[in-house]
Amino acid sequence: MGRWTKPTLPEGPLRTLNRELHSLHHKAGNPSARELQRAVGKVVSHTKIHHAFIKPQVPAWGVVEVVVEQLAKGARPRLAVEEEVNRFKALWDAATIASDASSVPTPEPSQDTASITFSEPRNALIYTAIMDLHRAGKATGVHDVAAELARRGQLEACGGEDYLFECVKVAMKGAYDAGVSISEFAALSARRVRSAADDRARIVAAVVSNNPPRGSWQTAYKRYIAQNSD
Description:
Layout: H1 13-27, H2 33-39, H3 46-54, H4 61-74, H5 81-103, H6 121-135, H7 142-151, H8 160-178, H9 182-187, H10 190-208, H11 216-228
Helix pairs in contact: 1-4, 1-5, 2-3, 4-5, 7-8, 8-10
């Protein structure tokens, strides 16, 4: 059998998963979809097997798992089946997360978010959830934010509670180092935290060089001095 046509995909986790599937298929001698269906005990249809290779979307893990297991058994040089299945599970997880994040619409920028740039769509979703809870006078702990994201059907796309805890660690350290505002803290963006730290360093450097900052920076500097005075 010849090779199947690869779908047109942008660079990213889904493209990587698809290319690795095609590569493994080639190593196993390019068996047909019906041959693979018979080999896996007809637990999935030949159509679903074929679509896993040619469709531009994340295939079901159940299909990927049985196909990879069978292809790994027939690959030459020989492959460790369990290791190959685990490798594809990691690729599939990454593709699924990326696909979920891109399918969730980014919320319209509010007065608080209009000036904030997020490097990842999920950070915008987290920020919006935190600020909405804050405005409503509700708690904004990790579990509270996770529950709110789950209520909106966005928790999985945001990486679950594990990602929220990682954000908190970054934000807490950055907030302590940089003295960021509540809104910036809620953004959970490492880039914003680093930027705030650089800004405060410039304030201190300007004062040391007898060139005090003006306007809002002068106010920020006075606040910084007040907070750190004996």
